[in-house]
Amino acid sequence: MLGIYVVLQTILANRRSMRNLSKLFISQKGKVNMHAPLTLQVNVLKKCRLDIYSYVLVFFLLSLSTQLLHAEGIVTQLQNIVSTGQDDNQKNIIDEHSDRNVVSQGKYGLANEISAIIAAKQHPYLQRSDFQNRAEDLDALYKMGEYKLLWLSNPQADKNRGEALNILENAEINGLNPDTYDIQSLKKRLPSESVITSGDFKQLALYDTAVSLSLLRFLHDLHYGRVNPKAINFDLKLREKKIIDLPTVINSSANQGSITQLPELVEPKLKQYQKLKQELSIYQLTAKKSAGFNFVFTNPVKLGDPLANAEELGSFLVSVGDLPSDGMAGSKELGSYSSKLVVGVKKFQARHVIEPDGILGKGTIAAMNVPISQRVTQIELAMERLRWLPEMNAGATIIVNIPAFQLWAYDDVNDFDANIPNMRVVVGKALKNETPVLMAEMRFIDFMPYWNVPYNIVKKEILPKLMQNPGYLASENMELVSTFGNESKSVAYNAGTISGLSQGTIRVRQRPGKKNALGKVKFIFPNKSDVYLHDTPSRSLFSRSRRDFSHGCVRVQNPGQLAEFVLKNQLSKEAIDDAFQTEKTRRVILKKSIPVLFFYATSFIDQYGNLAFYPDIYGYDSVLQEALKKSVDLSDQEIFAQKPVLASDPFDNKINPDDDKGTDKEP
After folding, report:
1. Cα→Cα distances 149→71, 198, 217, 256, 464, Å
2. Which of 78, 460, 503, 604 sits between 20 and 30 A of 290, alpha carbons compared?
3. Under 8 Å CB-to-CB from 93, ≥6 apart: which residues?
4. What's this model's pTM, rounded to 2 decimal places?
5. What residue segments make up the domains of the chain, in order of their start?
6. E strand or H helix at 234, and its extent?
């Protein structure tokens, strides 16, 4: 009986197992009824009288046959499902999985190709194949789009690509060279529709990244410039931080379908730049329409004199904006130098650093004969230099344009006002003592200053005179000191003086007074070139049209007016006038420092909104043109300060104003 019980329990367990197996492999719809075979097994076992071994053998044989029956049912049902299509859901799952594999291969294939190009930092489609300084931006741009194509594969992408290529093709509107951005190559290499649909991932990735990289380069050049100013000795401040994210701007514009607006978004907002850009379009159009004016000078031409090419002169003056478009309409003096022409010539002269006397003299004719294309280049170079400037905050700013020999004092650098202080200046001698280009902060003013004579002047000029005439120092109101500083005490002249002067242990300074080379006031903005703005007793030089006579510092024509501008929120006009009359040196520390920019641009918009051209007195235009021929992608290290300073003080050089005890530049 025990054996039968064991066999029966085994059969029941086997039955439950078979049911569970049936549930795992057979759908509800296609169940197999196993009750009949199992009942047959039990009945057979009840009728048989076998010993325990027989029961075990019978159980094994019957169980094996039952399992075979289950297996045969499962196989049959699966074959029926596949062959008859009874289970559509299973088929759909298989098909969908297959489709996803195809899409996945395309997505990841493109992503891999794009990533490989970025990682290589070399692009075979571009003239400047090395793009290591733009690789980070390129990667950021594609990362935003999950490394998909940006400029191909759909109508919106096609529209965006067309606008991007149009921007590059018209780069000259912004004073840039279209050839720099491989525009012709990009137009020729545009993949055909068959290539786009063929799934040639490498070719598609190469073209798409070429467009992206060219656009990134254009926008970077437009915002930051193409040349590192420090490489050509322009001591301009590095930017404190990145205020515009080019990949984000491109991605956002692409998503909005507004690629065309990109140049406007990233170009410098400085009003000087914007006005130069407007003038650039005028001069570019004039250069295309006309070969320019060609006048042979013989003798000066004055009002009323015969002038065979008077009509040609009138057309030229109209084209450059010095006469209104109807300026010559109805004129009965076409064969002579009329009063209308004189008005236009005077305006032309004023814009070209020529005395506006209205006479067609040698200098005026030479300026008129300069090709319009050269004027276009001058504007483009000025725009390039303005791109180098860090963002300038609102507030008082003093700008000296070196080749213009002029200073402007702005309440706001973006407010052009005919009443702003503007004065002539004398700058450093060309080829010898050039005034440096720099940015600094004016922190204090010395009224009735000492002039600390530079060692080279002491050695080359003062020592020989002093050895011949021991009274020379007294005659020039000079004294000997051991150190420079307003509170330094003079030392007596003795037998060891000459030796001390030769070695630099004894120094020479000029006392305040009428003979002092710095005049009555010195405007100090600490900088490594030790230059400053100052008054001068030599007033006659301000009447010259070309005024490069100093040893590097900048002499101002109206020091009183400049002092009033600098101190208007600190001292009254009466107090300033009194300071000019004091006999003792007085230092006034500014409550708020004022940015000072010594700039160099041979084209510039004055306070009246007029475009002026100036001679390239230091030859810096030629230097910049050569640098542009060799320009490469600028790195962030060349643009941004490694140790950022406060955003409100881009001119700051962190020099203590009380440390102004060094040798002065010769004024």
Report:
1. 52, 14, 19, 16, 76
2. 604
3. none
4. 0.80
5. 2-86, 97-224+241-272, 293-370, 393-449+516-667, 450-511
6. strand 234-235
